[in-house]
Amino acid sequence: SSELTQDPAVSVALGQTVRITCQGDSLRSYYASWYQQKPGQAPVLVIYGKNNRPSGIPDRFSGSSSGNTASLTITGAQAEDEADYYCNSRDSSGNHLRVFGGGTKLTVL
Amino acid sequence: EVQLVESGGGLVQPGGSLRLSCAASGFTVSSNYMSWVRQAPGKGLEWVSVIYSGGSTYYADSVKGRFTISRDNSKNTLYLQMNSLRAEDTAVYYCAREYSSSWDNWFDPWGQGTLVTVSS
Questions:
Q1: Confidence of residue A27 (pLDDT cuts 50, 70, 90)
Q2: In whole angstroms, how far apart are CA A4 and each of A24, A92, A95?
């Protein structure tokens, strides 16, 4: 089955731009979706498809993809963006499975 | 309002069984793909299982043969029957509505989660 790899931790200065990446073979065939999870809370969808934001998600969140890498970019990071971020995609083996990345802990300095 | 509410978690001994429920409101479970995702304490998200609107079911290798996903259309509720539980199944279990196309998938919304602890 497929695997998605994320950096365990990333930091960004308040108001600066940060990119969180997700790598995996399945991303050559499928777009990633991205989730924000704060301590003690359920995950929340922030980006899906080519670069779509659900209602209520600030436009400072954006997504992109190239080859086997998907990226979540936060332009002008805010203190409330400090959270864990997970990517997800379909498994590319044609077995109907899904896969999550290991998660990235974002610290806003 | 679209909402998912899980229940049924608790403490169970290794080898035991537990059934989780996920009650949906604001949409019809049987018309959607529905998934279970779990998160072990201090760890990341792990996809567990999906049931398609047509009824097909699929499982992660880690639970295949032990867990069964199902739904009750009359109750608009999703279930996860968990048998032969192991310590490594200890986690918060989330249910989520899943959208899926030929080139992507995403989960929205998620329930609040229910904690399953497997321990003697």
A1: very high
A2: 5, 11, 16
- Evaluate the omega torsion of the peptide bond into residue A43 and state whether it is cis, within 30 degrees of 0: no
Count Cα neighbours of B20 within 13 Å in the Cβ-side half-sphere: 33
Check CB contact under 8 Å for A102 and B44: yes
| Mean predicted confidence (pLDDT) in B50-73 | 97
Among B37, B58, B111, the residue with its CB nearest the CB of A96 is B58
Give the integer Cα–Cα distance in Å for B26 and B39: 26
Closest CA–CA distance from residue B74 to any residue of chain A (Å): 27
Looking at chain B, which residue has its C-alpha nearest residue A47? B106
| DSSP state letters, A14-79 | TTS-EEEEEE-GGGGTS--EEEEE-TTS--EEEEBTTTB--TT--TTEEEEEETTEEEEEESS--G
Kindly report the length of chain A.
109
